[in-house]
């Protein structure tokens, strides 16, 4: 199944679903992912993941008036499998991914620096968060420039 077919299933599902379901499933993020996947070189695992996602949209659309937690979990599982593949193989990440990764790392190292050298944890937190955000923002800008974000 190609990206265009999956996109059609997504739009049909969004048309029938309510705003609460759209927000709960974060379908806007999925649409950005599909747009980005159209530009990637196709591989077998991408094709199988897209096929699973298209089938999942069809299944959810058929059950639409009464979606349960199991339906949301099933959809999240299929989507996470595809996201992990795209991240690991194609190196495509969501927007602001690296800030989310490096800010807590900076906070951790800042706390250690603050307690160990500065003897004031507040200065260490400030320094660590600043460094983490700077590194994360730089990597996010690089990945956006290289076209590796969705």
Give a verbal description of the structure.
The protein has 150 residues and is mainly alpha-helical. The protein has helices at 3-16, 19-25, 27-37, 44-62, 69-90, 97-118, 121-145. The chain has 2 domains: 3-90, no CATH class; 97-145. The longest helix has 25 residues, at 121-145. The two termini are 20 Å apart. The mean pLDDT is 88.
The coarse overall form would be elongated
Return the string of H and E elements: HHHHHHH
What share of the residues lie within helices? over 70%
Largest sheet: none
Helix and strand content put the structural class at mainly alpha
Strand content: under 5%
Number of strands: 0
Write down the Rg.
20 Å
Domain count: 2
pLDDT average, as an integer? 88
| End-to-end separation | 20 Å
Number of helices in the DSSP assignment:
7
Low-confidence stretches: none
Concise overview:
The chain is 80% helix and 0% strand. It has 150 residues and is mostly helical.
